[in-house]
Every structure is written in structure tokens, then in C-alpha cells.
Amino acid sequence: MKKILIAVVALIAIGLVGYTLWFDKPKAPDVELTSLTGQKTSLSALKGKMVLVNFWATSCPGCVEEMPEIKKMHEQYAARGLQTLAVAMSYDPPNYVEAFTRSQGLPFFVALDSDGKVAKAFGDIQLAPTTFLIDPQGHILKRYVGVMNFAEVRQLIEANLKG
């Protein structure tokens, strides 16, 4: 009887751990950001929307490579509720970020993480590009380190956007 009870408890524990690993998505940190134009936002203010948070740098070849595709996705999904936040890494000179943003005509929220607090809140991001896709409830759906798999990102966006 004692062995059966131990086995049942072990199965329940394994089930809970498995459920947590497969289904329990972590919450995104509630960070505040200020855009290059001085506009402020926070992730809590964007609750109810899909959010793509991209940590990038002008000195990062992968970041520069993926930015036109991020721009296309933003243009494709913004009207349906996708918010795009491009967060320049603390080591990126502000004048480089401003020049790149202007030259590429980036239509979304571009912020400087001058003190590194936003990167730290997301798990001390050091490598760019690193991108998070956050669902309308504020949970992290996916984290990409390196250039994103855009087909997969589009599928996740489609599955989580309304309309």
C-alpha cells in the first residue's frame, strides 16, 4: 500500500512538472520604455495586444539583416493588434540608432536601453538579436536568439491575433 501511495504521489509530481514545462508560459516583465521621439509605453499598457520585442544593435549584422522583415511584419499585422518594440542595446550609440531608424523608415516604437534595465528585466540579454513574442495576456510565447524564423513567427502571430 505504501509503495502504491509513493508511486501515485510521484506520478502527480511528474505530471505537474510536465504541465508547467509544456503549458505554463512565463510572464513578460513589465518594463517601461521611451521611444526616440520621447513617447512612453510599458508592456502593461499593451496588454490585450500581441507584442514583438526585438533587442538589436546597429553593429549587429543579423539585426540589420532582419529589420526589413520585422518592418514588413509590423506593416502586415499592426492594424490587427501587433505592437512592435525595437529596443537598442545599451552599447549602441544613440546617434547610430537614430540614423538607422531614419534611413530605414522604421514605423514602429524604437527605444534606447541606455542603462540596460530593459535587457536585464528580460533575463540579462547580452546577445543581439534576441526577440520575444508576447501573447495578448502578457505571456512569452517564444524567445529567439539570433535571426528569427519568420515563417514560425507569422504562424504564432496569426494563431494569437483576433480578426
Automatic annotation (TrEMBL):
It comes from the Bacteria. It holds the Pfam family Redoxin. Residues 22-162 form the Thioredoxin domain. GO terms for molecular function: oxidoreductase activity. This is Thioredoxin. It comes from Paludibacterium paludis.
